[in-house]
């Protein structure tokens, strides 16, 4: 199901939340709307689903304008963060609810509900009440209920954030598997960078009601359009330098660039820093933190830059050690430093 | 020790209130079996209860009060819930509208009775407007609602006060259900009406039932409105009981107390039945185990 959003604006009593946002999505795509709390990503999802009214712009689903269509006629089904299972109905009745609204006969809808519950590995729980299920089980039922509605577009609103780490991983895999099985177009609203990077075909990065960048996880992570976009993924190190005559120059670094002349900051991430090589970038070990699956070492460069690098396996380093690291820059990203800064 | 003292001090006003209630109930029960030494009645007997249950005027008074309570509370609940839903659909669940809803609740019953007489008597405002518009040839054609054995004037007066009470009582809860589960239902393909019918209303029934219980018991024992707007006969239970209590014949006092005791018993019984129904409903809604 192809989604097109043109110049969408949404405002609440407290002020504007979305400012002329545009976005396209292809059929069968898995798009994550990523951004910090309060950036308007949930509002965008609600606007798509028709839950909040829009003040301007258009939303098209497969070419059909749905901007003014009532919520129940859109076919854009949301799996809410708090699940919103109906507590007075059994698990099977919950899953059968969308089919009941479509006028499917009782026997058929309960049979279909049982099938869907099997699909989400919840067979045998048909007659339980939602209050008798764990958080993960409720999430599965919510997913089965959403699937029963045969969504044109499935919207997941921070759907995994209430689950513990192991369960979250399991649910992510289940969603990806169901997406393939039911050939669905899916939007995931999340503030979890790792979740967005690992699950999505594309990521739409939002800040303050605006779409900052949209691209594949690789593009968004390695080629951020601004420092704000880069910082959101964390672990950024910026080396100040200048561009002159088509060359960027910083202490110990020099490479050609097409950028205009001026002052720039070079974005570096810990994977650029290799301490196994006998390089020409001296760093000193400041702290070593063992975290179970990895060890995070804080390294201070001679230029004062602090690097946080994670190592797997045993780390044979001591606080105070000085190492000769090397910097490898494959796809350099430069941000212009405005004269006001 | 300090904590214990604090608890006792905090519970003291409640304890005092309960002690007064218990003393009043005890007094009613003791006097209802004919034990009033001040009037020379010292031999307990159940004769007064027997009299109560065999007196036609008492039994019709029970029926009148039940009828008033049932009609006013059922209609108030239905209309109050509809008002509440209308407000929710319009997004008017906060601010000035809540003050407007609360206004009728604050008006004393005696004042409401005057409003109703002014409005619905055969020479009241409604009849005169009907006559002025040519809908009635004579204001006497306006239906007789007041002072009739049907107690419609009393029921309408209760509706005037209780519809806003129900709307106010259920508004916040229904609003929150509608904004979460109702929204989810609509997102799954339910129209606004079906979402209300399938989700918001069933989920709100325990709260509506609580509102029903409060207004039912209140209307069952209510005194001013049936007295001011009702028929001379049959009387409502509270009116009948009060007349017996204030009778110059002091030996009527145990009979009045027996009537009071029966009224108390009926109210408690109804509250108990309702309480148990609400508890079961709550469990069914997943509200407790």
Topology:
The complex is a heterodimer of chains A (341) and B (289).
Chain A: E1 3-12, E2 15-25, E3 30-34, H1 41-49, E4 56-61, E5 64-65, E6 76-79, H2 91-101, H3 106-119, H4 135-148, E7 153-157, H5 165-182, E8 186-190, H6 193-199, E9 202-207, E10 210-215, H7 217-222, H8 227-232, E11 237-244, E12 247-250, E13 253-256, E14 262-268, E15 273-274, E16 281-290, E17 295-301, E18 306-311, E19 322-327, E20 333-336
Parallel strand pairs in A: 3-8, 3-9, 6-7, 7-8
Antiparallel strand pairs in A: 1-2, 1-4, 4-5, 9-10, 11-12, 11-14, 12-13, 14-20, 15-19, 16-17, 16-19, 17-18
Chain B: H1 2-32, H2 47-54, H3 56-89, H4 96-106, H5 109-120, H6 125-132, H7 152-187, H8 192-221, H9 224-229, H10 237-245, H11 253-284
Helix pairs in contact in B: 1-11, 2-11, 3-7, 3-8, 4-7, 5-7, 7-8, 8-11, 10-11
What amount of the residues of chain B lies in strands? Answer: under 5%
Q: The CATH topology of the largest domain in chain A, please?
A: Rossmann fold
By CATH's scheme, which homologous superfamily of the largest domain in chain A applies?
P-loop containing nucleotide triphosphate hydrolases
Report the helical percentage of chain A.
Answer: 10-25%
CATH superfamily of the domain at 65-114 and 145-263 in chain B: MetI-like
- The overall number of domains of chain A is 2
The top-level CATH class of the largest domain in chain A is: Alpha Beta
Number of strands of chain B: 0
Number of E strands of chain A: 20
Helix count, DSSP H or I runs of 4 or more residues of chain A: 8
| CATH architecture verdict of the domain at 65-114 and 145-263 in chain B | Orthogonal Bundle
Poorly predicted residue ranges of chain A: none
Q: Find the biggest chain interface.
A: A-B, 25 and 23 residues
Count of helical regions of chain B: 11
